[in-house]
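Our preliminary data section would be incomplete without showing what the modeling component actually yields. Below, a chain of 235 amino acids is followed by its predicted structure, encoded as tokens that our downstream tools consume directly.
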Amino acid sequence: MALRYGESLENLKRAAAERAVAEHVESGMVLGLGTGSTASFVLRKIGALLASGDLKDVRGIPTSAQTAALAGEVGVPLVKLVEARPRLTIDGADEVEPGLALIKGRGGALLREKIVAYTGGGLVVVADESKLVESLGAGPLPVEIEPFGWEVTLEALASLGCEPELRMDGAGAPYVTDGGHYTVDCLFFSIPDPAALEGEIKSIPGALECGLFVGLAHVAVIGHPGRTEVIETKP
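Predicted structure:
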């Protein structure tokens, strides 16, 4: 990928986020709010439009404590999932293949991200062009697991043909999600059938959810140097 002078991946993310908000967010909506650097551009843009009065009565359902804190900072009111269902969810992705199957969760919030995306009216993906892949598996697939017996869960994941590694925090202890779970990063090198692998992983006791998002996203807004691209699939 060759970026033009003065451009950066952050600029591509911002441009894609702003187009996604402009084309998909309307006053009165309840939105699922994703987690991560790209999702933060979405949240900041919504906050700015609420502050200017160009959007009104938009509320968000956060997918992490990090997102909830940013929403408070930029002035986006929050609502609990038990109180409302999102009209749609806007979130980033770690890998996006042509049919809009995704890998998500390297930011540590995959379980809550999938719950919110599943309950809403659709998932709009925002990403820069570096996230586009021909086939999923270019990088590790996160799996959120129960801490009890995690060693056994890693063994079961390895039997699926991956190299699993327990994610650690900066202090050298297991990384703990907002839900109190561990995360395993599983390197498969290639995932030719994401839906089948998702089913295999979720059949393992202790594997609570994986970062394969299949059939949830129908629109992706991708930032390229000098332009944004919209990819759509049929619901």
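The first strand starts at residue 30 and ends at 33. The helical segments are 9-24, 37-52, 65-74, 110-119, 150-158, 194-202. Preliminary results of this kind motivate Aim 1 of the renewal.
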